[in-house]
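FIELD: query
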Amino acid sequence: MNTLLKDIFGIFKIFEDVYERLKKILIPPQAYSWQTLIYLSVFSGAISSFAGGYIRDIIALCGWLFLIAGTAWYTTDDPLKVPGTYMPVGAVITGFLVAVFAFGNQKNLLTPMTIVLWPTIAALITAIPEFIEGSDVDSKAQIPKPEARQKIIILVGSCMIISCWLQFYFVIDKWLQEYPSLLADDFQNSTFVITREEPEKVPANGVLILNQLQPLVEEEISGKSWSQVERWLLEANVRVGQLGKEIVDNNSLGLREKELWRIEPRVTNTKSGYILDLLSIWVGPSSSAKGYFLKKSCRIEPLATSRNRNTNSSVPEDKIAVAEIDCDRTISLRKAAPPAQQ
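FIELD: result
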């Protein structure tokens, strides 16, 4: 029975300790305390939701300032250091709030600029106390002591390097959004870019262009007289270029990638007709100095057909030659410079 009572009183003791801790955290010991600033920030946020226009912006600004000041005050009372550095964890939290306040927006608090500048701002906040001498009441600016200067330079420089690497990540990510065909390139020799997924074997945009170009070319050639087709092939560079430009302009290939695809034909004579190679040439950045291009080949041959001059006449039918075109279903990728025009 005594043991049971001790256990019950022990449980109440635990609740009493938790209550005392919460009381110490939530109830300000005096008006001038970090809890007061946090409560003012919450109050400002609630009031700003009922206001409008520039009044709301002013109240929200005050709320952010109260939150930043209160958080900085609380985390510096008993600072916990980031392992391996003399940077307080509070400076990291305060730096994040400052970055969100300065570079965030209502739609998205975590903008790329917020994440990039977060480490550098945290380092600067850590270094500020080294430039101040004295207590809260009587303080003045000072030049950091010689032993503190090296720590400040190393800390700020290291955090700036981290910011640079974060910025480099966002730059690469933006490039891949604007130029999605870069994902088909080879990054095995890159020191900076690591592909976790298997890269595309053929650029999807180049395939899209050729697949849409093929039926347009077939429509202009198929069934036409052989003489018309030969004249068309003489002007193939202009005709195919115009068709390719229309396809590129009418498709969403990336924010800026449209300018980096060039569509050209290559015509080769054969014993029975011609071979028309449709080339989708990538002129953007590539791991290969010569770049690469995609090719779809089409065979064009004459086909003899009959034409009767008069349906009621006994005159023999004339034989005329019309063009027949047959294009490959597959598209090949060539990592080399495109062949020269003939």
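FIELD: remark
The chain has a mean pLDDT of 79.
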